[in-house]
C-alpha cells in the first residue's frame, strides 16, 4: 500500500496515518493540500489518502467535505480520531512572547488557539499555512516572514525548533477526526459498530425539504452523528448536505434510509461504510432491527404469494 497525506512530515494527518496497520513501513507521500492528497488517489498514484474531516472545536474541514463530494467517486474505508494539542515554536532569535509579531499555522489550528494567542501576545497577526508542520518548518527558512508557528508536539523532535510554550489550545481535550480514502472498491465488512457517510443534494427546493430528508433517517432508527450544509458553488441558496450516520450499508435500516433519500433526490453520493472509531451512541430501536426488517419482509412475501394463488 502507498498513502498520501496532508504534509509535510509532522502534521496531525501523518500522526493519524501512522495508526493504520502497516502504514509505518509503507510508502508515504506528503501532499501540499487536501485536494492534492485526494487527487493522487484519484490518479492512481497512491492507494489511499489520510485527510482531516472534522474537529471537535472548529467543526467540518470544508476542503475535505467539498473534495469528496465532487469529482471522481472516492470511498471512505476507515476513520481515525487524534487528540490535538498545540505548541508554539519560534524562529531563531526570538526568545520572548513579546518579540512575536506574526504567527503562522493551519486555519483550523489558529481557530483552536486564537484565544490563547490574543491573550498572551496582544495584537499578534495570523498568517495562514497549508498545515501546522508547514508553518513550523518555515521557521527554519532564512527569509521566514513570521516569528512563530502553532504546531503539533510531533514537530519539535524532528527539526530542532525552539519552543516557547506548550498546551496553547483554548479547549483542552479537542479531537480531530481523519478519514482514510481510497478509490471505490469493496466495502469493509460490518463490525456491528460502523458509520456511513453520504452526500445528498436536494433536487427540489420546497418548504420542509430538509425535514423530509431527516425523516428518512429518523423513521428507520438511524442516528446522524454529523450533518453539514455546504454550498454547491452553483449560486446563493444552493447547498448540498454531508451526513455521517451510525450503521452499515449492509443493515436493512441503513439501506432503506439511503434508498428513501435517493427517492427524494437522485443526487445521493454514497461515500462508504467503515468501522466507527468509538462505540455507537444510540441503540437500534426494536422496530428498525435486522430481525424486524426480515420478519416484515417475510410477511409481505406471504401476502404476495397468497394474492397470486387466489388470482
Ligand atoms: O495541519 C495539520 O497538522 C493537519 O493535520 C490539519 C489539521 C486540520 O485540518 O484540522 C488537523 C488537525 C488540527 O485540528 C489542525 C489542522
TrEMBL record:
<dbReference type="InterPro" id="IPR045865">
    <property type="entry name" value="ACT-like_dom_sf"/>
</dbReference>
<dbReference type="Pfam" id="PF00800">
    <property type="entry name" value="PDT"/>
</dbReference>
<dbReference type="InterPro" id="IPR008242">
    <property type="entry name" value="Chor_mutase/pphenate_deHydtase"/>
</dbReference>
<keyword id="KW-0057">Aromatic amino acid biosynthesis</keyword>
<feature type="domain" description="Prephenate dehydratase">
    <location>
        <begin position="2"/>
        <end position="183"/>
    </location>
</feature>
<keyword id="KW-0584">Phenylalanine biosynthesis</keyword>
<dbReference type="GO" id="GO:0004664">
    <property type="term" value="F:prephenate dehydratase activity"/>
</dbReference>
<dbReference type="Pfam" id="PF01842">
    <property type="entry name" value="ACT"/>
</dbReference>
<dbReference type="InterPro" id="IPR018528">
    <property type="entry name" value="Preph_deHydtase_CS"/>
</dbReference>
<dbReference type="InterPro" id="IPR002912">
    <property type="entry name" value="ACT_dom"/>
</dbReference>
<feature type="site" description="Essential for prephenate dehydratase activity">
    <location>
        <position position="176"/>
    </location>
</feature>
<keyword id="KW-0456">Lyase</keyword>
<dbReference type="GO" id="GO:0005737">
    <property type="term" value="C:cytoplasm"/>
</dbReference>
<keyword id="KW-0028">Amino-acid biosynthesis</keyword>
<dbReference type="GO" id="GO:0009094">
    <property type="term" value="P:L-phenylalanine biosynthetic process"/>
</dbReference>
<feature type="domain" description="ACT">
    <location>
        <begin position="198"/>
        <end position="275"/>
    </location>
</feature>
<protein>
    <recommendedName>
        <fullName>Prephenate dehydratase</fullName>
        <ecNumber>4.2.1.51</ecNumber>
    </recommendedName>
</protein>
<dbReference type="InterPro" id="IPR001086">
    <property type="entry name" value="Preph_deHydtase"/>
</dbReference>
<comment type="pathway">
    <text>Amino-acid biosynthesis; L-phenylalanine biosynthesis; phenylpyruvate from prephenate: step 1/1.</text>
</comment>
